[in-house]
Design goal:
This protein is mainly α. The chain has 13 helices and six strands. The strands form three sheets. A two-stranded antiparallel sheet has the order 1-6. The protein is globular. The protein starts with a strand and ends with a strand. One of its GO terms (biological process) is transmembrane transport.
Length: 343
Amino acid sequence: MARGTAAGPRAVLAYLIRRLFAAAVMLVVIILVVFCIFFLVPKWAGVDPAAAFVGKQADPAAIEAVRQKLGLADPIFVQVWEFFKGIFAGRTYAAGGDVTQCAAPCFGYSFRSEQAIWPVLTDRFPVTLALALGAAVLWLIVGVGAGVLSALKRGSLWDRGAMIVALSGVSLPIYFTAMLSLSAFVYGLKWMDGQYVPLADSFTGWLGGMILPWVTLAFLYAAMYARITRATMLEVLGEDYIRTARAKGLTEPVVIGKHAMRSTMTPILTMFGMDFGALIGGAILTETAFSLPGLGQAVLSAIRNQDLPVILGVTLITSLAVIVANLLVDLLYAVIDPRVRLS
């Protein structure tokens, strides 16, 4: 990104190609790092990766079978190649006469549940995506709106009250606000039943089961976004070009909406790319509190059962989501801020 004159279609396309290439390289690096963490580092620590994949109660025969199936006895570069190839072309796990097929994209195979990881991820991903999208809409509207109003009414009763609420939102653990909302609206007032209903079964039931998780998750992020929006807006309002716009006789809504907000949105977009991408990996505490069958619940269950392939798969999906989110944020910079151009 650079500041200067507007870029033409060729510059935009060239920038997009460079960013896609950089994202692909970053994803490869992440896969290598994650692979080393799960397969190479345990060897350095004196832990047998095959035993870790099977579990503590496995007998030596089962451990040896998994070692043969995963190819853990092969050189490390062979293991890395097989892992990469499995993502794009599928993989065959074979040990003697025992053959297991893992169709592409193969992010691993759980010998605990006897199933490939990719179907588990795709089955739970829509729940996590719905949770992240709904909460993101709420925290952007409420958080950014509250921050802008607080900056415009600096020192007022609204400003003090909004920042107190924001400080509470940042300080309170999310599992506390989740339990509090369940206690108040489900068990106390009985406005909701607190049960998750699949969207395919009932839209109204699904919506009713998602409202509290959305609000609970958005409360934490809205508080952070309100604080950063207020601080950024106050800084922007002190810039020379804002005073110049007012001196030219532009109305306050035009000054705030067309000029100040564009500069204010740049750090907010940066935060949003990281926060939303990370949530795609699963909001573990929120999903656990409200019993949502998303990726966060899958990770928590995998940790309890020491099902490493599931943890590995979710880690890769989260990394990919963060990379894609930040790529989109980079492209949106030029749309939000007219001073930023692609080069």
